[in-house]
Every structure is written in C-alpha cells, then in structure tokens.
Design goal:
Length: 322
Amino acid sequence: STIELQDLVQLGKIGSGNSGTVLKTLHVPDSRIIAKKSIPVENKPLIKNQLIRELTIMQNVKTHENIVGFFGAFYTASTTNEIVILMEYMDCGSLDKIMSTYKSFVKRGSPDASENWFNELVLAKISFAVLNGLSYLYRDYKIIHRDIKPSNVLINSKGYVKICDFGVSKKLINSIADTFVGTSTYMSPERIQGSVYSTKGDVWSLGLMIVELVTGEFPLGGHSDTPEGILDLLQRIVNEPPPRLRQSPQHSREMVDFVNRCCVKDEQERSSLQELLCHDFVEKGRSQGDREFRHWCKRIKKRLKEDKMLQREENERAKLVK
Ligand code: ADP
Ligand code: MG
C-alpha cells in the first residue's frame, strides 16, 4: 500500500532539525497518523539523484521492531525543491524531547520529576533496541547508521524503541545544511580524524547518549555554535579522556561496565555490536520488564501532553502580560 502525498492532511508540527522539518499528518484513506519529513535540497541533479538512490535503499529495508517504519520518499520538484520522507509516527517522540520534558517538570518542581525518568530498566531497553536495530541494518543491508543521537531514537506508547534517519550519507547531508550547527556531536574520535567508519562509530555514539540520559548533560561539555566552538569540541573528543560512569548506589556494575565499553576512544579496543548484544546489561533489556516498560511509555505520553498544555498556557499568559 503506497501512500500518496495528496492524501495527507497536516495536523501540526512535530519538530525541526538541521536538515528539515517533521510534520504530524493524517493519512485520510485509512485514518492513520504519519510523520512527514521535508528536507530542502539544492537543485543540482547530481545531489538529487544520489539522494533518491539512497532513499530507495531505505525503501528496501524490511520492517523490524527496532527500525522506524518507512512508507516512501518523494522528490517534489514543483515550487520548492525538497525531499519528502514518510515514516511511522512515534507518539512518545524522541529521547531528546523526553529529556527536555523531564527537565521542564523538574523546573516546575513537579513531584513527577522526583527521580530521573531514565532509570536502568529504561536505559537497558533503549540500549538493546538501538544495538538490535543497528545489527539488523548491518547484517542484512550493510548499512551503517552514522547518526545515532537522542533525536534519532524514537519511542511509542506500545513500548517500542526504534531508530530512524540512517543510511543517508553525511556528504550529502552536508551539502544540504551545516550538520554541526546547533547540535552536540556524537561523532567518534576515529570519524573526526577521518578514518574508515565502521559500526563501532555507532557504538561510541550510543555510549555517549546513555551517559547523557543518566546525567542529564551532554558528556563532553557544551560548545558554542561558532566555528571555533565546534572545533574546540571536536578537539576535546579526540584529545581528552573519554567520558566514564562511576559505580554508585544509583548505577549498577553492569550498566557502568556497558557504558565504559562503548566509550573507548581506540576503535580497536571498543566492543563491537555483537559483543555488546551479549552484555549482561543489554540482555536484561532484551528479556526483562516488558510490562513495566510499556507502562513507562504510556506515562511518558501523558507527561508530554501535560507539558505541551502547560507550555501553551504559559505562552498565553506571557501574551496577556504584554
Ligand atoms: P533532528 O533529528 O536533527 O532533531 P529531524 O528533522 O530528523 O531533526 O527531526 C526533528 C524532530 O522531529 C526530532 O527531534 C524528533 O523529536 C521528531 N521526529 C522525527 N521523526 C519522528 C517520527 N517518525 N515520529 C515522531 N517524532 C519524530
Ligand atoms: Mg532526526
């Protein structure tokens, strides 16, 4: 069942990143919600053709429980030059969104934020899902993700964790927009230094992401969006010791060991996807706490809604004051 653009009605904006904008849409013929991502592209045949070729690779990826469903890609040549990607809508959003919602609950002093929402069961579920998705993409399609970060890990209220935005090469993305601006970078040291990129680069990114979810901060320190600030961060990734987690009453030995195997600067010494899939922490994420996790996802969805409402009220009030 292919979806046609003309059958989609826009319901609202979900978010926008470096490369484009994501809208929440309704597919009218079967009343299904679909996420529609638009990426403006330069009107150069070479870039367009390559992009379309890469998108057809995505089209061939068969459904997997840890990969966001793909419903098609279009190139709209009419008034605007853009690539449109249709994908499964994930109703609990991305990890960065959940993280910022948690922070706004903390700021409001909500009792709901008395402890970090990203407890170890949740982190184990996320770790397993990301590794399992990555290993599927590589095993069956030789696709390396290359852009694992909180905004590319999505959750839905049925209790699924899925990765999205893989496969499109960075060279092309760079031709679309400056990828560094506005994001913390999850790139591995070897990638920054221009070595061959393997799936272990994604392992590094996953490690950083888990540390960020545990501590609430991007582990390698912030950076300003100036070229100097970005260069400074890249230099820190290459030259400074990697982030570590220390064992404590809050952090189990298994989780600390898992993270510290991901955050290894030397690619050779870093664990592989397959090794990590056998790790105790990840095994826990695979086999335990399904009911509890589903419950967690439902709760997250409620909290996202609540946060959105409160934010709207705040905006209204601010307008009245003016
Ligand atoms: P980035 O990943 O760099 O933030 P994107 O354009 O890929 O930029 O996505 C923008 C935002 O839209 C993401 O941060 C995420 O919160 C949200 N998003 C993307 N895809 C989906 C989806 N399929 N379902 C729900 N939310 C999504
Ligand atoms: Mg994204």
